[in-house]
């Protein structure tokens, strides 16, 4: 039977929803599911993780060195914790993409990235070629399976669990060549882009940073997160933490509204799991209309204010 260790992602004392999505993937594998919480003070985070349905145990690792998530510091501890586990899962987020390759290297395993579906305990499906194809991969059975879970492809496991929380001490040699300096992140009252049920994104067609106010205004009416295409980011309209797509954030909102976005394949990769896609573009031949559930051809500067007024 599989024994799965999930590495919790958290920030400012709160568990990231990506952790519960990793639990859903672990439940598809089957077996015992444990979550490891590494922090300076993991108490509150571990208690939150213990409430996720399907989790059997939470390992709380308290260490001042874990105050900030640094892959080179966390990985040696996780490699020690992973002894006896058949699988080690982390989210395919910025956190997981940074951390899990280090864990895989220490465990001598080849990482399976962006797991979309579980076929069996060692067989998985994942996207390749910017999402244009799905490949089935089989991990060796003689090594621990180290994998990142494509969070846009999995619903979060529900609450209602009551897992035991166990304080764990880890004897691992931690590096001194890598250290935390500072964290710079955008501040916003809008919903987080990766977990928002509704997202409004703007593209090159918006025209300028000043014009992007039309996107923010509509998003506020919808209570939505705000994203952007790479073209809009490269043009300097908005910061790169708002980029949606292959080289940005992979999201799966219930509603995705693409405004002035042509729909390059790299962008479509980031929204392929969205529930309903709405596209507004003046170019009737724009690729975005091939994937949109609802499409409207016209001038966004006329359509969006009318839509906002109707809302």
UniProtKB/TrEMBL annotation:
SUPFAM superfamilies: Adenine nucleotide alpha hydrolases-like, DHS-like NAD/FAD-binding domain
Disulfide bond listed as a keyword: no
UniProt keyword Flavoprotein, yes or no: yes
Assigned keywords, A-Z: Electron transport, FAD, Flavoprotein, Transport
Top-rank taxon, per record: Bacteria
Residue span, Electron transfer flavoprotein alpha/beta-subunit N-terminal domain: 4-184
Pfam families per the UniProt record, alphabetical: ETF, ETF_alpha
Family statement drawn from the similarity comment of this UniProt entry: Belongs to the ETF alpha-subunit/FixB family.
Protein name from the UniProt record: Electron transfer flavoprotein subunit alpha/FixB family protein
Species this protein is from: Pseudomarimonas salicorniae
